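User: Can you fold this complex?
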Amino acid sequence: MRVLLAASALAAAAAPTSAFAVDYLSAEQAARLMFPEADAFEARPLTLDAAQLQQLDAQGVRGRSANWAVHAARRGGATLGFVVTDEVIGKFELISYAVGIALDGTVKQIEILSYRESHGFEVRLPAWRKQFVGKGSAAALRVGDDIANISGATLSCTHVTDGVRRIVAVVALARRAGLLT
Amino acid sequence: MLIRRSWAWVLGGVASTLVACGGGGDAASSAGVPIASALSAQAALGERIFADVSLSASGRQACASCHSPDNAHSPANSLVAQLGGVLLDLQGRRTAPSVNYLSSNTAFHFDAEGAPTGGFFWDGRAASLQDQAGQPFLTSFEMANANAAEVIDKLSRAAYADEFKRVFGADIFSRSDDAMARVTLALAQYQREDTEFRGFSSKYDEFLRGNVRLSDQELRGLAVFNSPGKGNCQACHPSARAADGSFPLFTDFSYDNLGVPRNPALVQNDDPAFYDLGLCGRDDLAARADLCGAFKVPSLRNVAQRHVFFHNGRFNTLKDALTFYVQRDTNPEKWYPLNADGTVQKFDDLPAQFHANVNTTEAPYNRRPGDAPALNDAEVDDLIAFLKTLNDGYRP
Amino acid sequence: MTSHRLRALPAKTILAASLALAASAAFAQTPTEAELARRLDQLAAELAAVKAQLAQMQQERAAPAPAAAPAPTAPASGFGVTAPAASAGTATPAMAAAAPSGPATVLSSYGEITYTRPTKSSVNTQADVARFVLGYQHRFDAKTKVVAELEVEHAVSSADDAGEVEVEQAYVEYQITPTLAVQGGLFLLPMGLLNGNHEPTAYYGVQRNFVETAIIPSTWREGGFQLVGTYDNGLTVQGGITTTFDLSKWDAASTEGKDSPLGSIHQELSLAKAHDLAAFGALNWRGVPGLLLGGSLFSSQATQGQTAEKARITLWEAHARWTPGRWDFQSVYSRGTISNTAVLNTPLVGNPTLIPSSFDGYYVLGAYKVWSHEDYSLTPFARWEHVNTTRSYADLGPGLTPEASGGQRIVTVGANLNITQGVVLKADYQQFRDSPDQNRVNLGLGWNF
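Assistant: Here's the predicted assembly.
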């Protein structure tokens, strides 16, 4: 309980300093959207070691970072799924987004938390984000393949899609290694 | 005598687009009708000097004698070259050109592509209006003064001598070289300031302002003038407004060699060894054999008022001049003398070694005997109708 | 992992600093022994607290179970964001989902190098650094940024060389509300598919297509203001007031006006005549992923007060792009009209290039990504275009009115090979159906970042 209280206290304190909804959602809000039935989000900061990073590389996913901000969605004592928050560069600006992974390893939902590029804000549209739902490691998760491009925003689309693909692979690897329960 | 014409008539509907060109300063071709304003003191003196026949050895010749204000400042008679000298019986070397529309001309130079450009006189030897204005005073077959002192001596006895002293200093007549410099300055200022030298009052100017339509024939003539395959005249005589909106001067101040036939009416041509070589006849360009036979491209404004055409006055009518352009190469026998064996002495006003300098690549002089001329007779008439629209002083 | 050592350092430093402070305090005055003892106790307590914090943090790292932190100040890590350059050791306790802050100034660039060989006159083969562009975006604050781009065409720009240096974009963008932004300055007109998106990695073929160079004069930029509205239904609405073309620049003696009517009279905001201003509007819909439909309109007077006559230039276009799976289909139609050209052309009669009263063009393109592996991909394409820069002329009278033409049809087939996301190799063959002596093979290398 303390964690939840602390979390919500922190969430309140951590409201985006910009009044602007180019920061559309906070991570907390996104997590609640993805797992509305969860009563707690517990931090599971993930650190991959060199061997695991190499494994990801072999899979064709460049493990860009060893550290991942992961939260487990909990209800009662059970885990419902995981929420990973990440940032990628569009063309000039950082795009921050959150990916919800269901227990079967597939994408439950993705939300764009903050978007500032002049082009490509269509990545925020529900229709575009819905393309990821239900896709797991088996899917290609590539722009121009199973994910449609947005004309005029290829970089943003591609980087976000690459990010989602990476997150799916990282979560799957971490769970196999017992780092995430 | 002071000539001042007041511009009383307002051009309806155009007043708002006029650019007022105040008096003084360099008048590049204007976008509207220049508005006359009072001449400065120097220019007013220039006006008087321009018309003062007493400044010549003969006592009967002034600038205005050959550059007549009644004929766009070009000769009012149809002499092949004007007569001058002490007794007014010496024939000049070349026709007297118009001195209108020269205020934007520059000193002689070679442009970025190496083409000769600018300069005053048919061979560009004078670097400015001022430089040109001083030379006829001292030429033996023109105003025939021996030196500057003679000119100033005559001027000191003119009716406006006191005004001259007032403007340039009480002791100016004691320094004849300085006084001569001021004489040429006054003449140059007069030509720059007086809107008579840049009237832009032709029918074509009114047409460009949108106030008048050209007749069908004049429009056909303009089309022939502009068309690269027909007259191609605008290649050297631009007819369109410039990018900055200024009105066309119908010259690009460049030089060309047309191979104009020799004119036996010129006394200097009695000597078969004499050739007027144009640019390379100048001392500073004597080594440039490629420029032999090239003369300045004159403005075509007021050309229809001229009585003699080209540097040597070989033709007396526009029709002849234009027909020469298009038939020079298709029917050379019409224009040049024939040898005993029947062959044509083409380009007979140029020594043989310079025949290659003649322009034979640009239309319309890029044809061969047997080809059809670039313009037929009717098209030449259309072209003349258009050229008549370039006369200043149009009244609807 | 280095994180432990990094964590340990601060504690040691704090301790050392505290001791040093205590020591200097000791030297600064003459305290009683009791005071000294008190200070030592204080320091010990603080040290214990810091050690507890350290232990707690290390535990949380290692153990997945919720940390039972003794100290009330136990930092439960909030929703952190995985920073791209992970330096977790310096993470602060309360890390919130703060607005991501990348670098304030980002440099961008693109370049195109081309090789063109006419198949029927190889003597005219040419290679060129077609474009070299440097740009930046600088963000002043959350709402305001400036975007600028400088371009060099044909490698060398001097009085004797064919190249040009130009400012291609220079505008400030301000986010008024979450859905509405305003741009002011020199910006690209949002017309067609290519003008706003003209980097070499963004289009197929070595040379830009003719519809969007001859009819829509890419790269077309004007100075002024525009509002950009982006809505959740996928609609983007743009509208603005800008400078425009200068019809008095029309050069009837050259052929530039036949190659591109509007391209020959554009001003590029370089000492531009701004007596006449244009209004434009653009609508784009991306509601369905992979589909773009849009159109735009631009209109203004364009004689810039240089003549008594007025003439209006109007350009409109419609475009579509559909990218299902590995396919990419594109199409653009554009048409321009100029009014009152009879009056403008009359003083220019006889010249080779008079002002047309209308010009238009369209193309359809299909591309398919036949092979891809990670960031490599090969996409062959085929494009059919029909461009007419002299579609109609106003009547000037018999013998004086120029001939309208049927236009030029061009077929382009080729392929783009993407090496990484930002580098592309291109090759294509272009067939000019109405003037086959212009047929050519093109090779190109381009990059964009």
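The radius of gyration of chain A is 16 Å. Residues 1-21 of chain A have pLDDT under 50 and may be disordered.
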